[in-house]
Fold each of these.
Amino acid sequence: LYDVFCEVTGLNGKTGLIEEARQPANPRIDKTREVTVEFMANVNGSFPWEFKPVVNRIQVQPGEPRQVFFAAKNLAKQPVTGRAVPSVAPNRAAKYLNKIECFCFTEQRLDGGESKQMAVRFIVDPHLPRDVSILTLSYTFFGVEPRQTGATAPAYSEGSGLTAG
């Protein structure tokens, strides 16, 4: 219930989501202004990944679909699974940053030493209050235990390093 409340109100930096099928065919772009979107990346505790945005900031016109990438590298020798939790500042503007596609929608697994770039496609809603000119989209990666599929692969376990999963 708390997550639903946060998603609806934008509280706690929860962002909106536009399903691909519900995107307007010709989105209304507000060409009268530009908004700066900044990107930040963190990992929780001793999570063994290097994680950063490929670009630190871009200028967008509200209503304009955009795509950026984040780079991740597993510094461990074993496979590690993580999940990114997004946050937007200022909090009151979070409901105006709508993600179309995001690596945060699913768990991400990287083999030992593997690197990859992960996409985020988003639109800043044209109804964003005019006094907001800068949004910061931040992600923090947390370790998760992979779902059991019959195989026992090493997994990252919060607080105990790498353990058999």
Amino acid sequence: WRKPLLNFLTTADDRTGALEVAGTIADEGFSVTAGSEITGGDCLVVDLRTRHASAAAAAQCVRNVHQTTAHARCHKIDSVLRGNWPHEVKALV
């Protein structure tokens, strides 16, 4: 069994961030799947629910999710820099 190749994999630390980025991507004409399962489409947006997690747990969650094969990956950072974004970005890089 082989997972499909995504064009974009995007993560966010909370639901509002995930929905915001999913809407922006959809506005550009891409098909977006929100959730944790790849069901087809151009982009998967995942709410990691790490806003209030420990820094180590947040980083590990990013590493786990971003093992999925994708042409491009990104992580939505909160606009007022709440959460564990420094640890999440470091884990992504």
Amino acid sequence: MMKFKTIEIEDLNINPITMIGQDWWLVTAGNEIKGYNTMNASWGHLGAIWGKEGKKHKNLLGLPTAVVYVRPQRYTKQFLDTETIFTLSVFEHAYRDALVTLGSYSGRDGDKVSKAGLTPVFDENTTYFKEAKMVFICRKIYQAPLLEEGFVDASILKFNYDGDDLHEMYIGEILKVLVCEEQTNERNTIEQQ
């Protein structure tokens, strides 16, 4: 089993635009006891927002956060709505077929994770995947539906939504970032050369 190492959020060296929009990530909520579901996503954000009494995160002026968007008909939404913790798992491009498989089947209809060949890791009262290269463990701090009247550019609404299925937005405080130790060791070896 691949081992993960916790890193500080300030030590992340990623391009969030390509990581989310090109490589995708898996949004997962639930755990081994109550059950879980996952979905691939290519929309989202990483950043910092708001403050919190008694919580200061080193040099950040806001909480480190991840934002995900989920359509109302997605099975994963049920888990995001009831759970406090969710994860975002990022994979190497070699796992693209597994992510496509996950996007082609609903967890309502069976064990799509096994069909995709991924291995769930049950930890921190949530679920992520041992094949991931990076995992964000997040605590849900805000949830709201996108509203039609909020679209200043109506062409975006028309292009992305043809029915009453606007996404729900979930903002999660990033509690922990895990990276695969193998990748950390490879990166350190390259940097030392």
Amino acid sequence: MDGEQNPSGQHEYQDHGPVQPMNVHSINVLAVVCSDIDGVPGARQAQIYGRATIDGAGEFVYRIHVEDRGEPGTSDKYWIMLSNGYNSGSQTLIGGNVQIH
């Protein structure tokens, strides 16, 4: 959140291909919606909406779905969808750790 309590932040996503390699970089964050994950005690999820460039060009709407399934983050999930039709599908993180408070 910025000083006026608006959502803010930076996001970068890299698809290494081979089908559709691309670099997605956020321009802004328009909204963040957080909630509990039913049936998973202590787990949280978030939907993040905004606009991004692909390979440094254009402007595309993105929706990111992340799941924080506890520590140390070995079962956290990530999913990005773009207005050009790109859909990563829900993926368990290989590295990193989603933390939703």
